[in-house]
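Appendix C reproduces, verbatim, an entry submitted by the partner laboratory led by Prof. M.T., so that reviewers can inspect both the input and the predicted structure.
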Amino acid sequence: MRAFRAVVVSLVALALPWPTFASDVPNTIEEAFAFLSKLLPPSEVAAFKQLPEQEASVVSYMGVGMYIRNEWFRSGRSALPAQLQALGAQHIDDMSSMVLTSYWRHLNGKPLKLEAQGNCFRKWWQEQNRLIGEAKTKGSSAHGTPRFSCPGG
């Protein structure tokens, strides 16, 4: 049943008529929550809320997450990416993950822990770069990935 709900959340998100006006781009995490709650049908918000935290972020990656990355972040119209980057996000995927995780926590009445999420991504990329450097030292381009996932906190 969870897999079905996850697919529904992702598919409905892709089918929505996404706004493209600058005034419709959130500039804070709180504005992002309000925007998502207004944009998504109540049944989809409820389905997202019922998923386990990490699963909610993962299953939303290609639907709502893609929209967040393309319309809010890549468009250059939102101040939110700079705020998330200042907290430790290194990549646009980190940023959308932080928004989705924080939205899930907001809906479920849990502390957002944005600083901890950002620190997790900062540490993840430090470890990733260490592994890449280690592989290069050995004359290889093959490297592993960190043995932990984010967002933390």
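The two ends are 27 Å apart (CA to CA). Additional entries are available on request from the coordinating office.
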